[in-house]
Design goal:
Layout lengths: L12 E5 L9 E4 L2 E5 L3 E6 L1 H13 L2 H12 L5 E2 L5 E6 L5 E9 L1 H17 L14 E6 L13 H12 L7 E5 L7
Antiparallel strand pairs: 1-4, 2-3, 3-8, 5-7, 6-7, 6-9, 7-8
Length: about 190
């Protein structure tokens, strides 16, 4: 199944998720912290870290943008909630204190898209430092402590979640921390 995905002006790539595809309450209270539902849901394919590298590479080799857009348009953009459902509470202290709740999803087309990028793009930009071609853990940010419902926390690699979970287990209070949540927590 193809998609109409294209790189943004910042060379990021987001797979939109309609609010009605995920039915959760408007707010969530976690230990006295009220989180609001994000105003816009998506699955990040290329976040700001990859976007920065790609933007610089595209400036030197504009054919990269065309190739990425072609690969994105052909990507299978289907997704499903993981079975069993997995949710994480994320907390970071910098650049500002923020908490979010993310829902993990299965999106196999994203891994295939990354593999296609790894195969095709280096030939279009020889000598340009390209990002590591491993996809981020597929997830949708459901809630945020940002009262405007906009800010999220980027998760680039599965190891980011693992390290954040270790920080939480060690009761650290800085850096990215993560804890699994029971899915029912979002519904209570």
């Amino acid at each position: 199944m193809g998609s109409s995905l294209r790189l943004s002006d910042r060379s990021t790539l987001l797979l939109p998720v309609a609010h009605d595809q995920l039915e959760f309450p408007a707010t969530m209270d976690l230990g006295g912290v009220t989180l609001v539902r994000k105003t816009e849901h998506h699955i990040t394919v290329f976040g700001f870290d990859i976007g920065k590298v790609l933007g610089a590479a595209i400036a030197k080799a504009p054919a990269l943008r065309v190739a990425i857009d072609e690969l994105a348009a052909a990507m299978d953009a289907s997704w499903t909630v993981t079975s069993p459902p997995v949710m994480w509470r994320l907390h970071r202290d910098k650049p500002k204190d923020l908490q979010t709740v993310i829902l993990m999803v299965d999106a196999p087309g994203i891994a295939a898209f990354f593999a296609a990028c790894a195969q095709r793009l280096p030939e279009l930009a020889p000598g340009i430092a390209m990002p590591e071609w491993d996809p981020p853990p597929a997830h949708v940010t459901l809630y945020t402590s940002d009262p405007n419902g906009k800010d999220g926390i980027g998760v680039r690699r599965a190891s980011d979640l693992e390290q954040a979970e270790r920080r939480t287990a060690a009761a650290e209070t800085t850096g990215l921390r993560a804890a699994r949540l029971p899915v029912g927590a979002a519904l209570s």
